[in-house]
Amino acid sequence: MTGSTIKDIPEEWEVRGTETPFRGKKTSVRTDDVVMPDGSVVTRDYQVHPGSVAVLALDDQGRALVIRQYRHPVREKLWEIPAGLLDVPGENPLHAAQRELYEEAHVKAEDWRVLTDVYTTPGGCDEAVRIFLARNLSEAEGERFEVEDEEADMELARVPVADLVRGVLAGELHNNCLVVGVLSLVAAEQGDGLDALRPAQAPWPARPFEA
Q: Where does the secretion signal sit in this chain (predicted)?
């Protein structure tokens, strides 16, 4: 295959039955009986997720805005880029990203592009994440958002992208959105340039929305 023909395609295999054995505050677990190509039926369990957005915010000195936050499932404090859930079905992902950048970093941006879209763990979860590139940063107006729980312990820093790349390749930085965002940024810079990235309101089939 050539590069122009390598792309993911929609496909849905027959589901004979489905159950939801667990419902949480934001996500749930679903069990589907899926028909395989040979006609057999197998059970597949997966997490149902509303989707997320993340923001690689780049300042005029080439530094990325990152936060360090405790993540209980992995028992680590991870350096991450600002991110959050799509709280409302059909929510415009750009608006959600702007909200997260304000709430987590008290920053706003004038230039927004889509950096990349990913499925975080498609073998066991349907979470889709849109990662934005935000530039032309400035301090947000008004009072800072009042944080709670893990976010009350967050640290905020601006780190040169080259340092983040080194950390990723050294196995010292592990957050999915940070890793994908930083490496996608470098690839875009070395390719057609950041201004060639998709516009902020580009369609997102994984999580359709109204502009």
A: none
Residue 148: the pLDDT is 57
Residue 204, CB-side half-sphere exposure with 13 Å CA sphere: 30
Buried-exposed string 177-193: b where 16+ CB fall within 10 A, e elsewhere: bbbbbbbbbeebeeeee
CA dihedral 72, 74, 76, 80 (to 10 degrees): -90
Cα 170–chain centre separation: 22
CA atoms of 113 and 121, how far apart (whole Å):
24
Alpha helices in 14-149 (DSSP H): 93-105
Alpha-carbon span 145 to 102, nearest angstrom: 8
What does the pLDDT read at residue 79? 98
Phi and psi at residue 56, to the nearest 5° = -90, 100
Q: Using CA of residue 59, residue 166, residue 131, residue 195, what is the dihedral sign?
A: positive
Return the closest-CA partner of residue 100 out of 128, 70, 73, 67.
67
What's the predicted TM-score (pTM) here? 0.92
Exactly one of 146, 151, 155, 172 is catalytic; which is it? 151
Q: 9-33: per-residue pLDDT in tens?
A: 999 999 999 999 999 999 999 999 9
Q: Is 151 a catalytic residue?
A: yes
What pLDDT score was predicted for residue 87? 85
Q: Which residues of the chain have pLDDT under 70?
A: 1-4, 143-152
What letter does residue 144 receive in the DSSP assignment?
P
